[in-house]
Specification:
Elements: H1 2-29, E1 41-47, E2 53-59, E3 64-71, E4 76-81, E5 88-95, E6 109-112, E7 116-119
Parallel strand pairs: 1-7
Antiparallel strand pairs: 1-4, 2-3, 2-5, 5-6
């Protein structure tokens, strides 16, 4: 009986150690700030569609997707993207969920700091 109780106690300790190790590893991989933004440019995307819409944004300066923006009708959303060193962001966008042939990416759009850009 003593052997069984020692065995279960050892298993509990091993589980606690494993959970602690994986939790610490997961926390080390997280960052509250996005360190990949180079020369950040803050600008405003303005909903150009009649109703609510979700769009995909692609940052041409950092060559990566930005988070999808969910717009309500007539809403403006603050966006922070990579700059080119001269205060200009270079982005393109399209409606989420549409195949590229029917709703292609917009032309590349240069955006200045605090500029409002109609997205449609």
């Amino acid at each position: 009986m003593k052997f069984v109780s020692r065995l279960t106690c050892a298993n509990k300790q091993a589980r606690v150690i494993l959970v602690a190790v994986f939790s610490a590893g997961g926390l080390l991989g997280c960052s509250s700030l996005d360190n990949t933004i180079v020369d950040p440019v803050q600008w405003w995307a303005v909903n150009g569609w009649v109703g609510a819409v979700t769009i995909q944004l692609y940052d041409n300066n950092c060559h990566r997707f930005l988070k999808d923006i969910k717009f309500k009708r007539n809403e403006e959303v603050k966006v922070i993207s990579c700059g080119d060193g001269q205060g200009q962001a270079d982005v393109r966008f399209r409606r989420e969920g549409y195949p590229s042939r029917t709703d292609p990416w917009s032309p590349n759009t240069s955006v200045s700091i605090n500029q409002r850009t109609l997205v449609r």
